[in-house]
Amino acid sequence: MSLGQHLLELRRRLVIAAIGLLVGMVVAFIITDPIIHWITEPIRIIAERRGDDFSALNFGAVTSAFDLRMRIAFSIGLFLSAPIWLWQIWAFIMPGLTRKEIKYTIGFVAAAVPLFFIGCWVGLLIVPHVIELMWGFTPEGGVNFYAAAEYYDFVFKLMIVIGVSFVLPVFLVALNMAGIMSGRAIVKGWRVAVLVATAFAALATPAADVVSMLLLAGILVVLFFAAAGLSMLFDRRKAKRNAGLLPPEPTS
Questions:
Q1: Taking a C-beta distance cutoff of 8 angstroms, is the pair 200, 158 a contact?
Q2: What is the pLDDT confidence band of residue 22, given thresholds at 50, 70 and 90?
Q3: pLDDT score of 84
Q4: What is the DSSP string of 80-147?
């Protein structure tokens, strides 16, 4: 294909992805009420514990409620339309890949996508504990009016950060398969990995919520060692293949 044909193909793929995102946003906008009710459950729990109405989601501007629904619609719509836009990306780059690269890419996506969503789910489990714990520092006579935009940004960013952290071990395996880092080198860095996982968990969760911190750090450490073990297994296969004990992999 010529450069012009590639650009036309890219435009077509982008239009299809945009239509998929738009449809996903429309569907997500319809279900924003149960989503808002779900993510604001900690606020209602706080209000019940206080026994008053001084804990609530606050909409400080005329358009705040609409803006919140649009933010939620975009985020959820992005997730709902993921199969469409991921396929468009894949269909655009696949013709230029070898059989080996296609196999590795499918394996990477098959591992990364579920881990990302599991991480987001863990983030959603941690969020209520974080909010309730932070409420405990409110001084006597204080109120907890949570600005809608800031509250949603907190929930969404924490969810995304933890989701991405779950995918990082997959990148380690990808680096190993690309020959950039050996499995032994990954294992040697276990002390740094444990330190980083603990520090990240401490930043992602409140300092006083030790249980959530240890849970998140433990999951990240387990994923790290799983990536290290898988990388060492791949290194053994490479060594056997180089020694002629296994047939070479197809490259095209």
A1: no
A2: very high
A3: 85
A4: HTHHHHHHHHHHHHGGGS-HHHHHHHHHHHHHHHHHHHHHHHHHHHHHHHHHHHHHTTPPTT--EEEE
Q: Hunting for tokens 């790290």 — which residue is that?
A: 224
Contact (Cβ atoms closer than 8 angstroms) between residue 67 and residue 149: yes
Q: Identify the CA nearest to 85 among candidates 172, 25, 31.
A: 25
Helix axes 148-177, 32-39, angle to 10 degrees: 90
pLDDT tens for each residue of 81-99? 888 887 887 777 777 667 7
Half-sphere exposure of 15 (CA within 13 A, CB side): 6
Whole-angstrom distance, CA of residue 160 vs CA of residue 176: 25
Phi, psi for 244 (deg, rounded to 5): 85, 10
pLDDT recorded at residue 206: 62
* Chain centroid, CA 244 distance in Å: 40
pLDDT value of residue 64: 87
Per residue in 180-213, pLDDT (tens digit) is: 778 888 888 888 888 888 887 877 666 556 777 7
Tokens of 112: 């990364």
User: Bigger pLDDT: 54 or 158?
Assistant: 158
The pLDDT of residue 173 is above 90? no
Torsion of CA 59, 65, 71, 76, to 10 degrees: 120
Task: Give the max Cα distance, the chain.
Answer: 75
Q: Which residues of 19-37 are buried (b: 16+ CB within 10 A; e: fewer)?
A: ebbeebbeebeeebeebbe
